[in-house]
Every structure is written in structure tokens, then in C-alpha cells.
Amino acid sequence: MSKTLPDLRAPTPGRAARSNRVGRFEKHQRDVFDDGWDMFEDLPPVRTSVAIESPRKVITRNASPDISFDRSINPYRGCEHGCIYCFARPTHAFLGLSPGLDFETRLIVRPEAPAVLERELRAGSYRPATIAIGTNTDPYQPVEREYRIMRRILQVLLEYRHPVAVVTKGTLIERDIDILSELAELGLVRVGISVTTLDRRVSRLMEPRVPLPERRLETIRRLSAAGVPVRAMVSPVVPALTDHELEAILAAAAEAGAVAANWIMLRLPLEVAPLFREWLEANFPDRAKRVMGRVRELHGGRDYDPEWGKRMTGTGPFAELVAHRFAIATRRLGLAGSLPPLRTDLFRPPPKAGDQLELF
To answer: For the chain, how far is it from start to end, CA to CA, in angstroms?
Structure first.
């Protein structure tokens, strides 16, 4: 009998990516094959490893015309949540790592980020505007339980009376309700909770280390009860896989206390597209062609169109239908309004030890 070597494309327990293909900047591609010499053996589990980074700056600026913020912070590079659709996966290629399994298992943490943030906020040239956190990798992924970087960042922002918008799938955010509620009282925070599906099986396959959908809805409920304004994010909408759940997700989020909502269509930039196709063909072979056909309809025959104003929604009849359904549902559920802008007029660096206090 011929023997078969373990294939990196085989399912790895607790991980979504089925391969560890190299990033676009590497010269050589690595693959696993049977050369007839090795004995068959199971591969060991792919465990999470952590490396420490000491950043010189933590506030990242952008000038993208189709997003609502011009600055953000990423406490972590890579994300153990392992969402197969994550548009941030290609950023691991800049580190010489794979956007596949490496993105989920080889994390970069930035423990000094809160201190660096404080230094940046004290700069005389700094002008406050909402800082977005969680727009790339999740600040409440499991490793945050140990490093507590996000909690310390929130403490700095509260001390400086600085506005912040947080996006997460992680229920660990409940740990920080004490700080978030204080920020909310001052009009300095809003939170987006991403709910992609209500189907537990689909969620576990697509987002293997993310809390289940009903648990995320409970997080919306707890944040809302503490006075923290929550936006439900139906993101991403996966054509022919989760799009039929749009109204049900919005209804569940509204019932839990969300006060606003948005949606984003599935995005498959760069290395994400082949990783997603591998995952789709392995887990949903009966509908893989239909899903990718819809995706290409949305992006002019390609897996992804990065053009400003189109990349978040796609174009064409299906994109228009989803937008129309979303508008009807949010009006009916009271989620169609815009959240008020966060305050910037309260910003003031606190006095440092040894500073002379003002008399007036």
C-alpha cells in the first residue's frame, strides 16, 4: 500500500486556514509531498507562539476615503480568532510570515503600546480625533487575557479624555465594562460587535476561536445595560452562505440592545482569496461554486475589487439587493439612525508627576 504524508491542507483542529502558503513577497513556495522515504505520522498540533515588539509609534494614520476614521491602534499583529475571511491576513506577509496558519498561530504583541500612546498624546502638535481599535486584528483575542494591553490602552484614553471606537468579536471586552461605562458617560466611546451568522456550526468552522453567536449577543446585552452604545456589525456577509441570515441577525442584535448597525460584504484581498477557496471547498463543497460565483459577480469577475467605495459592498444587482434588505430591516428595527459623534472637546493630557499645577 502506498502511504500518504500528513498534508498541511488537512484540517487543523481549532484553526480555519488549511495551509500555510508563503506570502506574496517570498521567492520560494513550500509544499508538502510524499517522497517515499518518510514514515507516516500525524503532525503535532499547531500551537500559538508569541513574539514581543517594541513599537516607536502606535497610532497609525490613514487617508482612505471610504472609512470614517483617520487613525487607529493595533495592540496585536496576527489574530488567534482565526477567521478564514479576515482581510487582515495579508499583513502577515510584511513580516515574512504566512497569511495562512502563521496568521492564526504566530502572534506579535506590543506590551509597551499604552506607554507609547501616552507619549504620542502628549505631543504638542497632537490634535484629538476618534481612535479606532479592532479594525485590523481583534484587540480582545484570547492572548489579551494574559497581556491586558487593551485594558491599559483604555485606561490611558480615559485619563486623557480621548474618544475611541472599538470593534471586536471577543467577549473578553466585558472585563473592561468598568472603563467603557466611564468613557460612555463622557460621550467618548462606541463599540461595534461583529455577528456574522447565528448558525453555531457555520460560526465554528468559519471563526474557530471566536465566541459563539449567542454569546456575542449576550455581550451586546451587557454592554448596553452598562450604558455603552453598541453597533451591530453584520460583517462580512458571505454570499450564498450567510446572506439569508441578515434580517435575523439584525433582529437578534436589536433585541439585545444594539442601537445602530452596519454591514460589509465579504472581502478577499490578495492571499485571502486562495485560503478562503480552500476552506470553502473543504467545508461546503456543495455550494463552493455558487459562493465564488456570487463573489465574482460583485467584483467584476474577480475575487476582489479594491476600488474605493466598492470594496466594502461590491456592485451589481446582488449588492443592491443586500443593501435594500439592510435598509428595510434597520428602519423596522430602529437601527437605522446614526450614532452621535464622539466628543473631542474634553481632551486634556493629565499633569505628570512634578508638573506645576495651574492656579486658575
So the answer is: 88
All domains in the chain, ordered by first residue: 49-333 (3.80.30.30)
- The pLDDT value given to residue 46: 82
CA dihedral 204, 210, 212, 215 (to 10 degrees): 180
- Strand ranges for the chain from DSSP E: 49-52, 60-61, 71-73, 76-77, 106-109, 131-133, 164-168, 189-194, 230-237, 260-265
Q: How far is CA 348 from CA 4, 161, 272, 338, 358, in A?
A: 64, 6, 41, 27, 13
Asked whether the CA dihedral 179, 213, 193, 110 is positive or negative, the reply is positive
pLDDT band for position 8 (cuts 50, 70, 90): very low
- Which 3 state secondary structure label does DSSP give 181? helix
User: What are the pLDDT digits (tens) for 109-153?
Assistant: 999 999 999 999 999 999 999 999 999 999 999 999 999 999 999
Helix and strand numbers (H, E) in the chain are: 11, 10
CB 207 within 8 A of CB 196: yes
Please, what sign has the CA dihedral across residues 48, 49, 51, 52?
positive
C-alpha cell at 233: 456589525
pLDDT value, residue 28: 73
Give the pLDDT of residue 13: 77
Long-range Cβ contacts of 292-298 (<8 Å, 24+ apart): 293/240, 294/239, 294/240, 294/318, 295/239, 295/266, 295/268, 298/239, 298/265
* CB 183, CB 164: distance < 8 Å: yes
Q: How large is the average pLDDT for residues 297-319?
A: 97
- Please, what is the angle between helix 113-121 and helix 149-160, to 10°? 20
